[in-house]
Automatic annotation (TrEMBL):
<dbReference type="InterPro" id="IPR036165">
    <property type="entry name" value="YefM-like_sf"/>
</dbReference>
<dbReference type="InterPro" id="IPR006442">
    <property type="entry name" value="Antitoxin_Phd/YefM"/>
</dbReference>
<comment type="similarity">
    <text>Belongs to the phD/YefM antitoxin family.</text>
</comment>
<comment type="function">
    <text>Antitoxin component of a type II toxin-antitoxin (TA) system.</text>
</comment>
<protein>
    <recommendedName>
        <fullName>Antitoxin</fullName>
    </recommendedName>
</protein>
<dbReference type="Pfam" id="PF02604">
    <property type="entry name" value="PhdYeFM_antitox"/>
</dbReference>
Amino acid sequence: MTSIPQRELRNNIGDVLRRAEAGEEFTITVAGRPAAQLGPAPRRRWVDDATLQQVWATAPPDADRLRADLERFPADLGDPFG
């Protein structure tokens, strides 16, 4: 993993980000100490039509079962929406 000082990152951010997007990983240092790691973000994963249709066809949770599950929470927890 390439080590890169904070100042170099600041001065060359575009180049460093292009390299990270291409798969390179960096350790960002501040005063010679490792402070952060920078690397490529995960790529998007697309869901195929059949899987998406299956998700939309799934029934919502049973209201009575949901109510029973919520009743198991401590009484001092309030409704964040009400």
